[in-house]
Amino acid sequence: MLNSTAGQLGIFFSSLILSIAASIVMSYRIEQVGNALGVSEGLLGIVTALGADSPEIAAAVTAISRGQHDIGLGVIFGSNIFNFAALLGLSAAMVGSIKMRRKGLVLDASVALWVALMVALQAIGWLSTLIAGLLLAGVVVPYIALFLLKRDQIERVTLLGGISGWLAEAVGGAREDARGDGPPSRPDKMDILSLFPLLVAIVLSSIGMVDTASTLGQRWNIPGAITGTLILAGLTGIPNAVAAVQLARAGRGSAVATETLTSNTINTIVGGFVPLAILGVSQLSFESQLSITWLLGITAIAGILCFVQRGLTRLGGLVLIALYLGFAGVTIMT
């Protein structure tokens, strides 16, 4: 019964629903605990985003650890491409236009593009894991450090020279736009203890998704790259898309951009670089190479569009959606 097509579909969608629901609750619990511990807003935003991205990351790590590199990399790179269309593009198309702060956008987009490029070069074997890791750390560690400091502390860092004021405004603006309507309620012991079973639920449901998607893909002659790049990546990215549209409707365009770019950065490092560094990768399929190339291109195009328009108009949003649809079409055809 469970090995039948209907049984496999039932397991897949049950795992998907459990993974998404658990990640939503876990993100809220992390925010509760972070506020109770007095964690800085910047670090709290990064950790909360990590919780929201856990379905994609867990699915990718599961696939790569089992040697299904096309599925694993497809989930990571495919979900990042999907994020530009669903978080930025769909938000702008539905709302009409979203406004963004240029300085914060430049900072987040530059880091996201650098991270995607380094992991892409690592994945195709042009950079060793050591070199890729050093190049990533040289940018990501200072980036995270900025979010641990307050605006006046950033301005006083003499090592930054004349750009300290610019960075302080970029990071400070991102914090203001990303700030919610109010802190969540303080957690009790059960809220804190619930983090572990929630994480276990996400991991186990991700294993269920990968296993059933792989089985059904083989049964229906669907390449692993398509299974990861279009199916798993798109479905696991739905919660982030819903949250982004709500932010856009509230007039918090910079928060939408920050969520998109930070999510992509976290996905790429935790779900791409780390498992590849530990487990390695065989020769990439054409679909995986296409995903990597398309991600770099859409990251650059989205950054340029948002910078020139000081946000994103409906037309700009439709351009990002069209780029994703083009990517899906080319992936299916090839």
Structure description:
With 334 residues, the chain is an all-alpha fold. It has a single domain (5-333), classed as NCX, central ion-binding region (A middle domain of Talin 1). It has helices spanning 5-37, 41-52, 54-65, 69-95, 102-123, 129-148, 151-155, 164-178, 189-193, 195-219, 224-236, 238-249, 253-279, 286-308, 314-333, and strands at 97-99, 311-313. Strands 1-2 form a two-stranded antiparallel sheet. α3 (54-65) runs antiparallel to α4 (69-95). It is globular. The model has no long low-confidence stretch (mean pLDDT 81).
Task: Provide the descriptors you would attach to this structure in a database record.
334 residues; mainly alpha; A middle domain of Talin 1; two-stranded antiparallel sheet; 15 helices; 2 strands
Please outline what is shown here.
By secondary structure, the protein is mostly helical.
Topology of this structure?
Elements lengths: L4 H33 L3 H12 L1 H12 L3 H27 L1 E3 L2 H22 L5 H20 L2 H5 L8 H15 L10 H5 L1 H25 L4 H13 L1 H12 L3 H27 L6 H23 L2 E3 H20 L1
Antiparallel strand pairs: 1-2
Count of discrete alpha- or pi-helical segments spanning 4 or more residues: 15
What is the radius of gyration? 19 Å
Q: Report the β-strand fraction as a percent range.
A: under 5%
- The CA-CA distance between the termini, in Å, is 34 Å
Order of strands, main sheet, comes to: 1-2
Percentage of residues assigned to helices: over 70%
Taken together, the total number of domains comes to 1
What is the name of the CATH superfamily?
Answer: NCX, central ion-binding region
